[in-house]
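Handout, page 2. Input:
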Amino acid sequence: MSFYVYIVASAPYGTLYIGQTSDLPRRIFEHREKAVPGFTAKYGCTRLVWFESFELRENAFRRERQMKEWKRTWKIELIEATNPRWDDLYEDLNNLLGF
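Output:
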């Protein structure tokens, strides 16, 4: 089983949200459908722009907490290092995860 830290955005350079999950496709679907009330539903954070996988839940949790302390500029730099056009990765997520 893998664990994921991810960033969803409302738009390129828009509002960012960092989260972690063991089921990335399901969790991003929930964000997109606004199935769970909260920050991402309120601010329209539905675009998956970055994610990282971990073998251990503890490592994903640590990375999420670390990134939530980062300056916004660092988060943007991380996204643009692998996704410079801020494409929504959700549509190709199963291929990216190897499913």
